[in-house]
Amino acid sequence: MNPSKNFIEHIIDEDLKQGLSKESLRFRFPPEPNGFLHIGHVKAICINFGLGLSYNAPVNLRFDDTNPAAEEKLYVDAIKKDIQWLGFRWDKECYASDYFQALYDWAVDLIKLGKAYVDSQKSEEIANQKGTPTQTGEHSPYRTRSIEENLLLFTEMKAGKHKEGSHVLRFKGDMSSSNMLLRDPVMYRILFQTHHRTGDQWCIYPMYDWTHGQSDYIEKISHSLCSLEFKPHRDLYEAFLTEIYTTGLAPKQREFARLNLNYTVTSKRKLMQLVQNKTVSGWDDPRMPTISGLRRRGYTAASLKNFIHAVGVAKRENLIDVSLLEFCIREDLNKIAPRIMAVLNPIRVVITNYPDGQEEWLTAENNPEDPTAGSRELPFSKTILIEREDFREEANRKFFRLKLGKEVRLKNAYIIKAESVEKDNNGKIKTVFCTYDPLSKSGSGTEESQRKVKGTLHWVSEEHAHQIQVRNYDRLFSDPNPDGHKDVDFTSFLNENSLTEQQAFIEPNIGEPHPGRNYQFQRQGYYVVDPDSTETNTIFNRTVGLRDNWSKKQ
Q: Taking the model in full, what pTM does it have?
């Protein structure tokens, strides 16, 4: 047994060893188009499409579109975009709605065999009769309906002759089974809703359990992989397949641990609530755990896939620290993101001995981690901007930034020394007056340029700087498990400081700041250009800081 392989790969290898042909391998990713994909789906995507790559087997993208009340083409398109952005390609694009007629015909066959019946009870009555895990259920009074009556009623249901909630079609399971899902499960319900693909052709819709395994069978899926919450469904999955199976490959359902991330909720219902209540700006809000939100936040496809690889494929669920996800994006962006200088909270610095009206252009490397990234030119002038927090009039020995009477190096530029300050009427410092050493220019090779000083600051030339808008995003929730508190609504843990906005200044030569382009603001963190940007207003979203500061806040 190869220890580098996960347990799913071991299952597949064993199946191949037992006679399954490699040509018969086929996987699928089956999202329901009732919302945007989130970080949890990335795991399922990587597992299924990753297996396709590992075994050179096709992977279907199948939309489980059996609930027209919640599903839209908008979600279909978003899902396809996300999968493609992650770098995966599917073999066939399928829809459960393609199989509505086949599913209906199989249901009719079960009725004719006396294995399915129309139940005319209310949903509450059906639920009560199912009993409890420790108490067996009771048979429906309609379970003994004749085949003829069941066929007639089911035909009328399909024809739209009965109201919503008046009838359902149930499978004759086992009302004493320890698995509650096997206690006469519902196969069809009446819904007068327009479907995003079939329109008003149908007014009865199959339930998930009746649809899923049969769809796998039709598509000749060899391994139906799903998260652990579907493990109780496996018995029913196999029971339904037994009823329709004739020849060919019988799909095998196996389960893996879902991805649970702290400081996050991934329930589509709750994410929808955040969108509808305008807690966030939409499904792609950079604070959302959706793939589109993470993409807008500046996360790369590579970082998400690396994160999933680091988490691994397990059989037991656990809560993953979001700091691992943040580590993965830092690691990726460190390699690829060009460095630029940006001042977020500026204070003016006037270099008194620098010639009036003079400017010069200094050379800076774009990315020290990538020798091929080249360099850029930085304008330097008499008046520059630095971070306000980088200056103090007085400070202890551990403050290695600028203070009166002390020196620092300006990155890619000169060594400066703070001499005096100018304050406004409220005592706030307006300007710091410095002198510079003209022989200390970085990279000049002079003895003065090689002089050691303890602090290095980023800066921008005031005259040349471009003003930008910065959106500082933080974790949406302040509690590590916002969804895990009984009788406490998850929204009570919303982080009121999850978004702050400010104006900032950046150097001019940053290339074309097109939406989605990543940068490292030196000494600040990683940022990405937001799609809301215009020609006159470039907006940067903070992806993540240079280091994990969250733990320090707690």
A: 0.94
